[in-house]
Design goal:
The chain is mainly alpha-helical. The chain has 3 helices and 2 strands; from the N terminus they run H-H-E-E-H. The protein folds into 2 domains: 63 residues; 46 residues, no CATH class. It binds zinc ion. The site of zinc ion (ZN) has 8 residues, from helix 3.
Length: 128
């Protein structure tokens, strides 16, 4: 999707060029209309920035509300509360989940480490 703020900014700069052309042509009526157009575009740009901020804040709220429902903490690890059929119930990496809200399935550590640790995170390489 094209950047709407970039498109509006481009249109505003075109209105400035059009205004200069109208000034050189001494076309007062066109100058007035172009200034009105520029004013409308500036308002649209301001509203677009406000909507972007609002969208960012709402996305964060949705993430905060929905994330805790996915996993539950049991026996030192995170598990899916209700895994779909065939889906890995867990355990999932506690560090990746708590810091980045990323579900990373833990795997058995390689080689001799399997005698020291139960699990390894393939994402952050922590051993548990
Ligand atoms: Zn991890």
């Amino acid at each position: 999707m094209p950047d709407p703020i970039g498109a509006i900014t481009g249109a505003i700069s075109l209105t400035k060029e059009l205004h200069d052309i109208a000034v050189r042509a001494k076309d007062i009526e066109s100058q007035k209309r172009i200034l009105e157009l520029e004013k409308s575009l500036l308002e649209a740009e301001k509203e677009m920035h406000r909507l972007n901020r609002e969208n960012f804040e709402l996305s964060k709220k949705v993430e905060a509300v929905s994330s805790p429902a996915i996993l539950e903490f049991r026996d030192g690890y995170y598990f899916k509360k209700s895994p779909a059929p065939g889906e890995n119930p867990g355990p999932y990496c506690p560090k990746c989940w708590e810091i980045r809200k990323k579900t990373v399935s833990l795997v058995k550590p390689p080689g001799d480490l399997k005698y020291v640790h139960d699990w390894r995170c393939p994402e952050c390489n922590n051993d548990y």
